[in-house]
Amino acid sequence: AGARRGGKMASTAAGKQRIPKVAKVKNKAPAEVQITAEQLLREAKERELELLPPPPQQKITDVEELNDYKLRKRKTFEDNIRKNRTVISNWIKYAQWEESLKEIQRARSIYERALDVDYRNVTLWLKYAEMEMKNRQVNHARNIWDRAITTLPRVNQFWYKYTYMEEMLGNVAGSRQVFERWMEWQPEEQAWHSYINFELRYKEVDRARSIYERYILFSALVIVHPDVKNWIKYARFEEKHSYFAHARKVYERAVEFFGEEHMDEHLYVAFAKFEENQKEFERVRVIYKYALDRIPKQDAQNLFKNYTIFEKKFGDRRGIEDIIVSKRRFQYEEEVKANPHNYDAWFDYLRLVESDADAETVREVYERAIANVPPIQEKRHWKRYIYLWINYALYEELEAKASKRTRQVYQACIELLPHKKFTFAKMWLLYAQFEIRQKNLPLARRALGTSIGKCPKNKLFKGYIELELQLREFDRCRKLYEKFLEFAPENCTSWIKFAELETILGDIDRARAIYELAIGQPRLDMPEVLWKSYIDFEIEQEEYEKTRNLYRRLLQRTQHVKVWISFAQFELSAGREERLQRCRQIYEEANKAMRSCEEKEERVMLLESWRSFEEEFGSATTKERIDKLMPEKIKKRRKLQAEDGSDAGWEEYYDYIFPEDTANQPNLKLLAMAKLWKKQQQESEAAAVDPDKDIDESQT
Predict the structure, then answer these.
(1) Contact 191/158 with Cβ under 8 angstroms?
(2) Mean pLDDT value of segment 12-34
(3) Which of 132, 311, 365, 385 has minimal CB crowding within 10 Å?
(4) Residue of 493, 496, 450, 444 whose CA lies nearest to 473
(5) What is the DSSP string of 38-51?
(6) Residue 213: what pLDDT?
(7) Is the CB of residue 606 less than 8 Å from the CB of residue 564?
(8) CA distance 92 to 124
(9) pLDDT class for 313, splitting at 50, 70, 90?
(10) Which InterPro entries does the record cross-reference, listed alphabetically (predicted)?
(11) Are 664 and 658 a contacting pair, CB within 8 Å?
């Protein structure tokens, strides 16, 4: 039994030592939130720090324990320094710990050792000097600041701290000396203002002025783009201390220094406000106008706003109008700068300048405008440009009363035009008219003669002839007409005008010869006008036979219906006994001649004219005869074709059937039969609608 019990116990112990089975994982999918090894390590480190117990509080009861504590701490600090000498924070902690123990000499030694390692560290110098100042070691602190500004003169913090320390100690002279040493290094703007504020705290206005002067000179010589605000601060400093003349002089120097290349609206706004405070309103107005004339519009918004406010407060209506004009001038300047060949903008600009500015300013703008010559020598590009010259010349003549300059403008424009390609007759004629107004007839004739020789045009000939007509120089007019007709023999108007001139002068044969030459030309632009003028000329001279011959000659060239009607009306107005017979004979001839004409509307027009004649002067027989000649108007349809030859449908039109045309007799009979059939159909329809009426009528 004991053995069995022992065996059971052994088996039980062996069973307890068996490794348990590994649990089976049912869901082998990855978790939604994955944990990296870095996170595990970081969490372990954080929890390790949390679990660290706080260090025990150590109570030092005697000197030996204190010395032992100091030794251990110093050994720790020294070990940290030996591990990494470049970590300045270890040096600073070491020094501050020694300072807390009032071991100033040891702390000083540590700072010196640290400076040997890294003398460029700004924090190290600051902590060192602050330690000396806290422990009232003034001379040591001065020594450290001197070493710091000598070693690192570009660190402004050292200079600020040094000057502040001296000022707190009441050593004004020492602080001023430090500032002077600082200024020798030409520091930034704030350092100069700190020096100025330092002097002002002790009422040293003259010293502050001298510092401002030095700084302005320094900015002018050293800084590439000096700032306007320094000049404004200097002027306001003078104004604040009631040195108004000095302040004005500073502003004037600033304006002169910056010139027109680096103009800034803030300077002029400050200058104008200063003068406004001094009640110098005319000065203010001059300053604003000077600036607005020279600063681009996009950079002068604030300037214009302040000028407007000033004029509303102290100006009159004229001043406000000047502001509006200035604003518009800015707009036009921007437009012409953006596109110098925008001649419409130049016209608007010149109109504005002429209404407000003096003659020199207007001339300057005109010169700028005419300098923008069109780049292409095509007349369509010059049509707007040439009016700049015309307006310029008219301004010089009418407004400026400068005839010499007007002549120069005309001559310069004429020299500029490319006469071989195109010209402007208007310019030549205006120049000639100007010379006539100046009672200089030879120059006017010379100009027009030159124009005809260089670039003959119809308008030039007409203008020259009109000038000579006004001067009653008829021989010159004849010569000019001859030249004109040699240049343009197809111009019917010129022939007519030439003949009219000879008629006015009483030379009928010469006028008739001119008309004969004209109608003999192979090519004419308006022959019908020329023939009509010739016929009217002969009628006016009461040469009826010659008029008839002219009509016959004209009918040989054309069979137009208006010529026949005009011929018939001429015969009617001839004033003789046989005029009606002659007129009727002309209508007969015209009707026979028009039978072969394809334009039936013209034949209808002739017959209507004939009928109106017969109604007024004819008998019943002639009226009946003309009524029989009138055509029938019928509606027809014809097929249309598109441009590509496809069928485009049908259209209706009216046609005329003349009774006297033998080819149309069957058509007329067919048309009469169709009308009769239509009438019978209408009667039968009416009888079917009302049968009782038909019975009553039959009984009756």
Answers:
(1) no
(2) 65
(3) 385
(4) 444
(5) HHHHHHHHHHHHHH
(6) 84
(7) yes
(8) 7
(9) confident
(10) HAT (IPR003107), HAT_Syf1_CNRKL1_C (IPR055430), Syf1-like (IPR045075), TPR-like_helical_dom_sf (IPR011990)
(11) yes
